[in-house]
Design brief:
single chain, alpha/beta, 5 strands
Length: 180
């Protein structure tokens, strides 16, 4: 069985998610991937949709026919992979390969994390260009280091998860007050 893991990035179509879904859909048309694990939790307080749920809608609109598994808890790249691994552990069939989809800003981080989290699998990381603020690119190196340590030390992983959830709530409140 060949598995795809799709890392989610937000619930706003304004940040190029549709182009990201187009790229994934095109890639799936030329590769044999049996099932997709769509990753991403409820990162915006007022949203009725998780990142994984929105990605499922976008991929279905594009005619993607693979079986979907939704991972709707994660709020970081590390947790996308850790929680996807938990889903993989419940598969009844042997897994031949894993293809992880991400955006180009996080390609290096996903590659590094995949070597730790999926060290006993054949893994390919496929990245696609997407509009991102320059700040997102700048924080990837320290974020890669911190999240890699979180992959190695589970206690740190839990701290990262709680911290990111708190950060998302703060950003939501700021945006709400500013009328966005």
């Amino acid at each position: 069985m060949n598995i795809g893991i799709v890392c989610g990035y937000g619930v706003s179509l304004e940040n190029d998610l549709e182009r990201y879904a187009d790229s994934i859909s095109e890639f799936l048309g030329s590769e044999k991937i049996d099932s997709l694990i769509l990753c991403g939790g409820y990162t915006v307080e007022q949203s009725d949709c998780s990142e994984a749920g929105l990605m499922q809608q976008l991929l279905r609109q594009r005619g993607v026919s693979q079986q979907f598994f939704l991972e709707q808890e994660s709020v970081t790249s590390l947790h996308n992979l850790l929680f996807a691994r938990k889903i993989l552990e419940n598969y009844n069939e042997p897994i031949q390969s894993i293809c992880i989809f991400c955006d180009s800003a996080r390609n290096f981080k996903i590659y590094c994390l995949s070597k730790i989290v999926f060290n006993d699998y054949v893994v390919k990381v496929v990245s696609f260009g997407r509009k991102e603020f320059m700040l997102i690119y700048l924080i990837q190196l320290p974020s890669t280091l911190i999240q890699s340590l979180g992959a190695i030390f589970p206690g740190l992983s839990n701290t990262l998860f709680v911290s990111r959830n708190n950060w998302n709530r703060i950003v939501d409140r700021i945006l709400k007050r500013s009328g966005r």
